[in-house]
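[job 0412] stage=complex_fold ligand=flavin mononucleotide status=START
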Amino acid sequence: MTNLETSYLGLKLKNPIIVGSCGLTGNLESIKRIVVHEPGAIVLKSLFEEQINADINKNILQNTELSAEAETYISSHIAHKNISDYLTLIKECKKITDIPIIASIHCTDVDEWISYAKKIESAGADALEVNASILPFDEKLQSTEIEEQYFHLLEQLREHVSLPIALKMSYYSSSLTHFLQKLSWTGHVQGFVLFNRFYNPDINIQTQEIGVSNIFSSAQEYTLPLRWVAICSAKIETDVCASTGIHNADTIIKMILAGANATQIVSCVYQQGPEIISNIKKSMIAWMKTHQYKSINDFYGKLSASKETHILFERNQFMKYYGSVE
Ligand SMILES: Cc1cc2nc3c(=O)[nH]c(=O)nc-3n(C[C@H](O)[C@H](O)[C@H](O)COP(=O)(O)O)c2cc1C
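[job 0412] stage=complex_fold status=DONE, emitting structure tokens
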């Protein structure tokens, strides 16, 4: 029998297909439609501290005659409601499925990170994905100062919660492999998600205005994470989860060959519906049968950046490749 089981963050997954954090994983009805197709795990939509603060500000701004006392009351009521809705979602998910539920948070204040994480652990989430990507736009911040923020955050989280932690990473890092290796040595983090896909601005040359680029990834974007999955999985003990541009079974197989313990899909679920999870599983099994692999372990990491292959992933100027294009 062909077996798709894998392990990620110490959790046993029935298959390596995780539905990543997005609007589709932000409400129970939509999650029910996903669960029918049995992904390996689900990452809930992030609980954003900034969003909660924006809701609070909007409500307070709408009512200019509020006393300071009323403002405090409304603020704490809105914050409490947002968080309690999130905790209810975790509990409801745990009731309807035994598929691992990974909560996701993004905060700006370390105390809030800790407070949210503790509540999420008590609500029964199986793991926590830390959506902490810091965009290095500030010319006054040195890379070591940015890195220090990650170390501090993970240290604080680990001190207060014991559930497995995955760090959803940004690819903007001056020495990514060294940085991830140092983070993994702390033992505070059990997995790295490579990578988060940011909101990206774009420019309309007709109106000459700044707008938004594509919300969804394209099926070609996977090559960037593929390179780093191959490099990091060869050099770092911590689990690696591939994310961005994964739209089909072929790409998931490539990621596993490169050394991913699991993979996340989002855009393709929006575009093709949750049925894509079942279709990917069927295609993966067909490929494994053709190549006589009985389990994921049989081909996991076969093409990671090992001693023999590392040059193919570490090279960025490939004369043979560019030289053949005239
Ligand atoms: C509509 C939408 C909402 C998203 N919301 C979140 C979120 O709340 N938290 C998060 O960490 N990532 C969020 N993401 C990013 C995805 O989790 C994922 O990292 C990104 O879409 C790349 O994966 P893909 O190429 O499979 O789409 C969102 C993506 C989309 C398209």
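Residues 20-23, 45-46, 104, 131, 168, 196-197, 215-217, 243-246, 265-267 surround flavin mononucleotide (CB under 6 Å).
[job 0412] exit 0
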